[in-house]
Amino acid sequence: MSQVRDEAADVLVHSLDPEHPANHICTLCAKFYTLGWVTGTGGGTSIRHEDKIFIAPSGVQKEMLKPTDMFVMDFASKEYIRKPKVLKPSACTPLFLAAFTRGAGCCIHTHSQWAVLITLLVEREFGKDACFEIEEIEQIKGIPKGRGKVGNLGYFDRLRIPIIENTAHEEDLTSSLEEAMEKYPDTYAVLVRRHGIYVWGDNVHKAKTQCESIDYILQLAVEMKNLGLPWTK
Ligand SMILES: CSCCC(=O)C(=O)COP(=O)(O)O
Ligand SMILES: [Zn+2]
């Protein structure tokens, strides 16, 4: 009986469409690996498609994922409707759910070294309570103004990304991530000190391009600091 249920659940991850979430997570994570975002099993990506959440397993090489590795959760009940045997769902799941609860269609978690370095630079320069702030950089125009607002930030707008403290276990970041989301309702990203960053977007395309824009800005900001150049006027 349970085997019949397992086979029925497999339909949820079998598709020839490259943009089906089970396929898309695999190709995205393989790309993100080449950027140093999800190496050594760290980081990951989750997609909400209609009433379902697609989640990769925990502790596996994210660049080697297969569609049949995916967990599928019913968003309303938060119950798993597909659970691959032996594997555990990503420890990032409650953090991804926090983004989906706020309307995101995709959430990306990276261990980018630029994100980690920025959290250390901000702490050294401005203290533990400060967020990362930067302005007058063209790529800021790749980030939306905020949830429910029309359009993206402009060249003269200031991009602010809150920073939360790391915890021993990924799932224990959830309450501080949610607090940061409440305190900065316009943000589409939260940095995690000495760990990485969570970036989300209304859909997969927006989450990916926003994450690319932010990583570009974080790398640039580290290089600016090395050259003694200020992030804000
Ligand atoms: C070396 S990775 C440590 C765990 C972590 O920070 C992470 O993002 C991976 O989570 P997952 O459970 O998806 O493997
Ligand atoms: Zn992580």
UniProtKB/TrEMBL annotation:
It holds the Pfam family Aldolase_II. Its main location: cytoplasm. Substrate binds at residue 92. Zn(2+) binds at residues 109, 111, 195. Belongs to the aldolase class II family. MtnB subfamily. SMART domains: Aldolase_II. InterPro entries: Aldolase_II/adducin_N, Aldolase_II/adducin_N_sf, MethylthioRu-1-P_deHdtase_MtnB, Salvage_MtnB_euk. One of its GO terms (molecular function) is methylthioribulose 1-phosphate dehydratase activity. This is Methylthioribulose-1-phosphate dehydratase. One of its GO terms (cellular component) is cytoplasm. The keyword Cytoplasm applies. Its cofactor is Zn(2+). The active site is at 138 (proton donor/acceptor). The gene is MDE1.
